[in-house]
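User: I'm preparing a small set of examples for a lab meeting where we compare how different chains pack in three dimensions. I only have the primary sequence for this one, and I'd like the structure in token form so I can line it up with the others. Please keep the answer compact; I'll paste it straight into my notes.
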Amino acid sequence: MSALLEARSLLMEGIVESNGSGREAARKFGISPALLSLIGKAKRTLADDLKTKACEMSMKSALAIIMEYTGLNRLFNYNRTDRSLHNMLQKIRKEDREADTARERIADRLIDKPTDEYLTAQDVEETRVDIVEMADLAAATVDLITEMDSRYQSLKIGELLREKEKRH
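Assistant: Understood. Below is the structure token output for the 168-residue chain.
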């Protein structure tokens, strides 16, 4: 499945999950169910004002929009394998250990190397590998938060994160 179709599939999941049906979601968006279906199939785009509404509906929808418009699917992804919270927490533990090691390697490697001109080809390659390790931790964390938002609507995670952002 293409990255665009994967993002749109996730978008539709989030929209339908948070509204009970595609028909109800279309009603809340003020569009026809047929247009919503075309958006889900990536044959039409979601208007900017509706992107904002979709982001407010669920973390899944917000994640889908981020995936589609940034193309940073390595950083913002939705892992469709085992969605049990226990498994996801174990994955975060594993990724955290790997990211911690990667951060240490980067810190050691970049001492006294303030700009590109000080980096060797090996520094660049090894640092790029370590950055992927750190991105994997961020992705696993976002994935867990998205799953928790889906399962526990009473936590109002999207609202909580927007609220926290406003305070700072």
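A couple of notes for your slides: The chain is about 75% helix and 0% strand. The radius of gyration is 19 Å.

User: Perfect, thanks.
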